[in-house]
Write a structure and sequence with these properties.
The protein contains 2 helices and 7 strands. The chain has 175 residues and is mainly beta. β1 and β2 form a beta hairpin. The N and C termini lie far apart (55 Å).
């Protein structure tokens, strides 16, 4: 029921799962190499998750809105006053969502068109960001960044289509 009007309607609410566990592992490796006026830094991290509700009725059902695999890799190359960087992000598909988004009786009333979109696009995603920086001196730098370089369409959760490609210029200073 709607808490204000008391009328029955479709919807859902967040509730804590009291008996759950998130098993998994994380690993990370960093490589740093300096040569004369240049340096390269590579950082790669991977996470494997097995998030489940530990309930005899649910048969160890996956917790909602979670992915099994994620990867983040950053590479930065600096030569004299110029730095080039690329960031890569990968997330596997979301394993479980609220039934209200999938149930034929409710799905079109909550988010019209979402069910078909979900069936086609819940495949995981790979995102690339890039940046180019000029190190003016030890205190100041100017950076040009591109987020979502390939303009990939992806979802963080149902109905939350993530940002398209964007460009930004930043001026940073240390005082």
């Amino acid at each position: 029921p709607d808490p204000v009007t008391g009328q029955m309607d479709f919807g859902f609410r967040a509730s804590n799962i009291e008996n759950s566990s998130v098993y998994g592992t994380e690993s990370q490796i960093t490589v740093y190499k300096k040569l004369h006026n240049s340096k390269i830094i590579i950082n790669i991290g991977y996470t494997y998750m097995y998030p489940v509700e530990l309930n005899t009725l649910s048969n160890n059902q996956y917790l909602k809105y979670r992915s099994k695999h994620s990867l983040k890799a950053t590479t930065s190359f600096t030569h004299n006053k110029l730095r080039i960087g690329i960031n890569t992000f990968y997330k596997s598909k979301i394993l479980n969502i609220d039934n209200v988004f999938l149930n034929p009786g409710t799905r079109e009333q909550i988010l019209p068109g979402f069910y078909d979109y979900w069936q086609k696009n819940n495949t995981g995603y790979l995102i690339f960001d890039g940046n180019l920086a000029y190190l003016i001196n030890k205190k100041f730098e100017l950076t040009f960044s591109i987020k979502n370089l390939t303009n990939t369409e992806y979802m963080g959760r149902p109905g939350d289509i993530r940002p398209q490609r964007s460009f930004s210029i930043q001026f940073n200073g240390k005082f």
